Amino acid sequence: MPALTDAQVAHYRTEGWLAPIDVLTEAEAAEALAALEGAEARFPEDLHAGHRNNAHLVLPFLADLAVHDRILDCVASVVDRPTALLNSVLFVKEPDSAGYVSWHQDSTYMGIDTDDMVTAWVALTASTPENGCVAMVPGSHREGIHPHEDHFGPDNILTRGQEVAGVDLDAAVDVVLSPGQMSLHHPWLVHGARPNRTDGRRIGVAFQAYVGADLRPARGEHHVIAVGDHPVDLAFTLVPRPVAEMTDEGRRIRAAANAALSDVLYHGAAERRDY
Length: 275
What we know:
The chain is 23% helix and 21% strand. It is of the alpha+beta class.
């Protein structure tokens, strides 16, 4: 499939997000969902609610999805020569659950000072206002980084419970996705998500984020996988994609990546949650 059209790129530049974008067929999305839920059943200690970062380092099907041609073609339309993926997060909201994502900007605590990167959020189930789809504040990325406050609420899915202030949240737009579709959003875009009030699970994976060739980390270690044809800068720690599911080596690589990510995300925080 082709990369984004000029009109789609213009929408992304102006509004800070773009959706829906078809990535997987309905059958492929169902297959990916079955693979994830099968892995959850086999490896509950590795994929529980408090341990859903960087599962692409231990699950080959997620690593394959991270470098899916359609995703990378779209990423290359808005990022200059993408080289690496920083992290991934499985966002699983159980039926009729209180978990939510407060209004925030991704790059606030990511240890990256520039904005040549993009997050791809891929739906494995339907994502609707009723089950807590992502909502975006159009154009908010053009205002730069807003002050955030850490709340560490028990139902807040974010690491620090960080929340932005001073933004017109009434302008937020729900991003409705069918299984296999994705959204793209800018690292400075204000977004959040409400709880799931339905009787089904809402599941998506955020590849957060694909970075351009000239981007460098401002602090901390960043364990990344390579994407595209351009070399990964030596400022990043390059790690391999998994060749098999939940190997000892894969678990070691993921644990090191999560420890480094935790140090970056919790820099300056008064407390930190277990990863």
